Amino acid sequence: MTVVVAILVRWLALAALAGLIGGLALEVFVLPVDETDTVSARRRLRVWSLVCIGGLLLTSAAEVVLRARTMGGGGWAESVRVVPLVLSRTHFGVIWLGRIVALATLVVAVGRSGYRARVVALALAGTVAFSTALSGHAADWGDLTPSVLLDWSHVLAASLWIGGLVALAIVVFRAGVVARHGVVARNGVVARIGARFSRLAAWSLAAVIVTGAYNAWVQLPDVAALWNTPYGRILLAKLILVVALVALGAVNRYALLPRLTHTRARGVLARTVRLARLTFVGPVRGSPSTLIALVVGEAALGAAVLGLTAALGESTPARHAGHVAHVAELDGARESIHATIEQLHEAGGVPRGWRFRLPPGDAQRGGRVFARLQCYRCHRLRGEPYPAPSAAGPELTGIGGHHPASYIAESILDPNAVIVEGPGYTGRDGRSTMPAYREALSVGELLDLVAYLETQGGMHRHRP
Predict the structure, then answer these.
(1) Is 253 found in the same domain as 348?
(2) Which of 24, 228, 275, 346 could form a Cys-Cys staple with 122, CB 3.0–4.6 A?
(3) Looking at residue 361, what is its pLDDT?
(4) Distance of alpha carbon 89 from its chain centroid, rounded?
């Protein structure tokens, strides 16, 4: 049930973000500045932008509760109580607060008139898109990495394309410009708006293809994963819808718009589209209403693409599907064994291939244990009030979002059971330079320290 709610929230968040960026882009790049017929559309676009900002605020609130539920594992009421801890002690919380500040500033920018205010608002919307990239699968590779930057570009391009389609269909054509359909048909405003947006969509589509191909290369181990894994099948369905979107866009660009502007598109692609349209559809009347109907159809397909994108965001990437299946096989093949922490101490850690669940600890007390042991001397925790590390050690920012409690506890009990490659992480003998804390920690302190590190969910990377 939680996964379904998470997908729905992510879908609404992506739709609101795309609608915001697409609507602002229409004002900045598409709508003619000197046309009186677009004045009403511009007013409605500002209302549309405020609605999208409201949707982003609501979905952001839901996302932080879902993140607290994922990290804490409790019920909804308990998750709400944990939210302040998530916001104050996790990297995700820092990103979330930055997003809220950007959205609040956006409300002010959207409320102002003038072209410069629209440009500022569009730039602020881009920072909101960056926060989305920082909380997705691409962030598994670290913060300002090529994966995150390309995923950000993917989000921006897709929002310009799909969000622009939705805003064009719902706000401009249906509510604004078409209100005076007779005038529009004579002066060709629909045709000019369609032509301008078509050029913007073409550039956005090119960026979507390039960045999407990179994301697929990162997340898929091979082509067969497209049909062998749940992640791949969702991605395949998304690709099919994108192809349908491109086909409709090609009909608009190369078949309908030339008729409306009394020109003839040239080139092999234009002739191919016209031939395919005549073969499968037949003659189509080049009227503004036909163009609008196709734009509405594209917008509906775009909304479905965003839904599948949300499902991808809540799915395990295909590259990690084998590991998940292996863990599930181990869980099903072996019975649970109950052991005390003292017994694990004596055994030197957890046997390979086994996992264990710890009793809950107190994260606030765990923070004091972290400070007392001076773990910050080797390990960086972004967003925490510790000095910069003076020795090399793996960065722990985001460790709670990428590793279970069993992994964290085992790393503390037996550092040599989990060796991280890196300069200064191991000695000349190949063993970890981290001291074992089995004798320095009580059972309660260990549980508290693990609970504290579990709150460090979000982005994680190793310090070079």
Answers:
(1) no
(2) 24
(3) 82
(4) 21
Q: Let me know whether 91 and 201 are in one domain.
A: yes
Residue 461, in any domain of the structure? no
| Tokens read off for 368 | 């004091």
Residue-wise pLDDT for 265-303, tens only, equals 555 445 554 555 444 444 555 556 676 777 788 888 989
Of 2, 9, 58, 3, nearest to 316 by C-alpha is: 3
Single out the residue of 265, 337, 28 nearest to residue 167, CA to CA: 28
Same domain, 148 and 247: yes
Q: What is the mean pLDDT of residues 82-110?
A: 88
Tokens of 314: 């809540």
Question: Which amino acid appears at position 458 of this protein?
Answer: G
Residue at 394: amino acid letter: P
**Cβ atoms of 393 and 454 closer than 8 Å:** no
Residue 284 neighbours by CB under 8 Å, 6+ apart: 251, 255, 256, 277, 290
pLDDT band with cut points at 50, 70 and 90 for residue 190: low
C-alpha–C-alpha distance, residues 104 and 339, integer Å:
50
Q: How many CB atoms lie under 10 A from the CB of residue 126?
A: 16
Question: Hey, what are 97's tokens?
Answer: 């607060």
Q: In total, how many domains does the chain have?
A: 2
Tell me which of 219 and 274 has the higher pLDDT: 219
Helix (H) or strand (E) holding 409: helix 405-413
How far apart (Å, rounded) are the C-alpha atoms in residues 299 and 162?
7
How far is 71 from 271, CA to CA, in rounded Å? Answer: 55
Whether the per-residue pLDDT at 193 is higher than 50: the answer is yes
Looking at the chain, how many residues does it have?
A: 464
Per the model's pLDDT, the better-predicted residue between 358 and 346 turns out to be 358
- Cβ atoms of 430 and 413 within 8 Å: the answer is no
- In angstroms, the CA 86 to CA 83 distance is 5
| 432: β partners | 426
CATH number of the domain bearing residue 350: 1.10.760.10
Q: How does pLDDT run across 388-417, given as a tens digit for each residue?
A: 776 656 778 777 776 777 778 877 876 665
* Half-sphere exposure (Cβ direction) of 341: Cα atoms closer than 13 Å: 20
The whole-angstrom separation of Cα 377 and Cα 306 is 43
For residue 360, the model assigns a pLDDT of 77
What's the rounded Cα separation, in Å, for the pair 78 and 457?
Answer: 17
| Percent share of the chain, pLDDT over 70 | 66
Euclidean distance between CA atoms 159 and 25, whole angstroms:
10
Residue among 163, 197, 154, 146 at smallest CA distance from 13: 163
Q: Which residues contact 53 (CB under 8 A, 6 or more apart)?
A: 16, 20, 103, 106, 107, 110
Task: Provide the residue range defining the domain that includes 212.
Answer: 2-319
| Cβ atoms of 344 and 413 closer than 8 Å | yes
35 and 182 both lie in a single domain: yes
